[in-house]
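hey so u asked for the seq, here:
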Amino acid sequence: MSSTDGAGVVGQDGAVIRFAANLGFLWADRPLPDAIMAAGTAGFDAVECHMPYGEDQVAVRAALGATGLPMLGLNTDHSGPEFGLGAVPGRGAEASEHVDRAINYALSIGCPTVHVMAGRTDGGPAAETAYRATLAYAAHRAAEHDLTVLVEPITHTAIDGYHLRTVAQAIDTLDALAAAGVPDRIRVIVDVFHVADVGDDLLDAVDRLGDRLGHVQIAAYPDRGEPDRGDVDMAVLLPAIMEAGYRGHFGAEYRPRGDLAAGLSWLEPWHRARTVHDGGDGA
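ran it, structure tokens below
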């Protein structure tokens, strides 16, 4: 089990480790405004969500304002069997519509990033061509509004046949888009569960991405539960990612092993260490 007492809650320049509640996994049975309020009560520093499109934008903005939590990101529509359309050949017009819808919603609630879901494909050249076209469209649209586009390698253990599986693939795609003159608006999510599941070294992935690292999500590996145990020691990994230059939040995208509220005890050592760092007694 990880222990964060004492060192490790801040980087060399004093940047504090901050956590975002992923509301696609946590409090997902509640309306999004209620989930935002719960995340604030639980002590999270921010929130992120999956598909908020059925939620009233005014109510979501009000909840964000009441808690003071920023909404860090949302996904394009992945409600169909393809789990997104970004890389699905022949579905480019729909994929662009999904991008537009996501950007419009993000702008309405003050959210700075949109995660373009690639979807399930055969992994062939046609799918990659479709993916690059969707991402180019998204990058141009994001540039118009000073937003960031995110992509996420997802292991086939989680989504069988997902087009973007590894960080190396993401880098190849971004390199190709850069060579084609696409605006530099695309960044990569490193999800601890997905990167570990394909056998990649997490810190190596962070180093290879450099300033293309857009967000980090955490969960225990291999059970994807609360990030307080398992094969990856977060008390070692998270400060190391900070030392590598990351200054974003760590998105808690895990599946509670049991009672959600009881499982939030994983946050307590981090909060205690932060209190000590800020000059409190840590009690």
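The longest strand covers residues 186-191. The domain at 19-257 is CATH 3.20.20.150 (TIM Barrel).
lmk if thats what u needed
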